[in-house]
From TrEMBL:
GO terms for biological process: polysaccharide catabolic process. The keyword Chaperone does not apply. InterPro entries: 6-hairpin_glycosidase_sf, 6hp_glycosidase-like_sf, Glyco_hydro_88, UG_Glycosaminoglycan_Hydrolase. Residues 1-19 form the signal peptide. Belongs to the glycosyl hydrolase 88 family. This is Glucuronyl hydrolase. The active site is at residues 114, 179. Keywords: Hydrolase, Signal. Substrate binds at residues 114, 179, 239, 251, 255. Pfam families: Glyco_hydro_88.
């Protein structure tokens, strides 16, 4: 008799329960998740009603709302669109349209790089999911306006879009963060929609510059690269949201994975695919990745295993890997799908997925926003929910291999 058999004999109920959970067909897990999501987002919609803005997280026991200038504003309407896509229930479409319209001010916001997030999740998914010509035309115009605003931050000398303005008390000259890869999808869409190659050229230049300067030999990335705007030379490689300049901030790795996978889909450039695989290898085989595949907020925090997790990084990585699998050979694809499925099973368990009524109405627990600033540690976050829903839809193969845009 093996030790495992003895332990299972003693803890029969527990072992039986975990075997049953592991054996639950993934389709049933996904269906259950969307039921929970529907219940939770009804609660969140009620809580948000009558308050200005968009739910972002829970702070001091209350839902924290943010305005349309916040980089996360689009994720709430984006999740409502995903709920409409998953259920076909028109309630979600009505709510998604209402909140998408509220993200409109981002179209002309020249002060930040996050317009791809802010407009893409709402207008981008809406354009994919609505039929009527007037709405489609309005959404298309909003996305094109946003893309046109975003490229005002491009500097041809650097070959990048500037991420943040020069905040007081920093020595930066032209800061670019790895997260910025995510905003390029808006430009790739705009190039096709307007038949205007300039958007695409800028997106490719940005991706090429990041490829050259953001990555370490092991495939991990720096958070922020600062450039000399006059010469394009690298001035510094630092972190703002990670543990240390040389560490691997988990969400940054996930943004890079998603970004280069998406850029490969849009361009079929081998160098982007190679980089996506390299990041995937770093992330999926990391010795400090917990068995449930939900990473600590930074792979190099010396407090591991007592460091907070980041469920948002797990959801973004799972969604990315499901797309990367569609560009991979059969064995690699199976590995990526299996990894993503394990991640999503973890996120669907009681350890991470809220019980209806809990977690302020959000879905996932245990995400980390900005640990060095002591902000949003071990909390729900609207973008963790958004990429969780996206990954579930991708896993269901409802839209595998596609992005937010037509
Ligand atoms: N893009 C900001 C963040 O990932 O926290």
């Amino acid at each position: 008799m093996t030790a495992k058999t003895i332990i299972c004999g003693i803890l029969l109920a527990a072992c039986g329960a975990s075997a049953a959970a592991a054996a639950e067909p993934i389709g049933a897990v996904i269906d259950k998740d969307f039921k929970v999501a529907s219940a939770q987002y009804r609660i969140l919609l009620d809580k948000a009603a009558g308050k200005p803005g968009f739910p972002r997280t829970v702070e001091r026991g209350d839902v924290k709302m943010v305005g349309p200038g916040d980089w996360t504003a689009g994720f709430f309407p984006g999740s409502l669109w995903y709920l409409f896509e998953a259920t076909g229930d028109a309630t979600w479409k009505t709510a998604a349209m209402r909140y998408t319209a509220l993200t409109a001010p981002a179209k002309f916001d020249k002060s930040q790089h996050d317009l791809g997030f802010m407009l893409g999740a709402g207008y981008g998914n809406g354009l994919r999911l609505v039929d009527d010509a007037a709405t489609r035309s309005a959404y298309r115009d909003a996305l094109l306006a946003g893309a046109t605003t975003l490229i005002t931050r491009f500097n041809p000398k650097v070959g990048s879009i500037q991420s943040w303005d020069l905040w007081p008390n920093t020595t930066w000259a032209f800061p670019v963060i790895i997260d910025n890869m995510m905003n390029l999808e808006l430009l790739m869409w705009a190039a096709k929609a307007a038949n205007e190659p300039r958007y695409r050229e800028i997106a490719i230049a940005h991706a090429d510059t990041a490829l050259k300067n953001h990555f370490r030999p092991d495939g991990s990335s720096f958070h922020l690269v600062d450039y000399d705007p006059k010469t394009g030379a690298v001035r510094a490689r630092v972190t703002v949201q990670g543990y240390a300049d040389g560490s691997a901030w988990a969400r940054g790795q996930a943004w890079g994975l998603y970004g280069y996978t998406m850029m490969y889909r849009e361009t079929h450039r081998d160098e982007y695919l190679r980089q996506a695989h390299k990041i995937a290898r770093f992330y999926t085989t990391h010795p400090r990745l917990p068995a449930d595949k939900v990473p600590f907020w930074d792979f190099d925090d010396p407090a591991i295993p007592d460091a907070p997790r980041d469920a948002s990084a797990a959801a973004i990585a799972a969604s990315s890997l499901l797309e990367l699998a569609t560009f991979s050979d059969r064995e690699t694809a199976a590995r990526y799908r299996d990894f993503a499925e394990q991640t999503l099973r973890s996120l669907s368990s009681d350890a991470y997925l809220a019980k209806p009524g809990d977690n302020g109405g959000f879905l996932l627990k245990h995400a980390t926003g900005h640990k060095p600033a002591k902000s949003e540690i071990d909390v729900p976050l609207n973008y963790a929910d958004y990429y969780f829903l996206e990954a579930l839809l991708r896993l269901k193969a409802a839209r595998s291999g596609t992005g937010s845009f037509h």
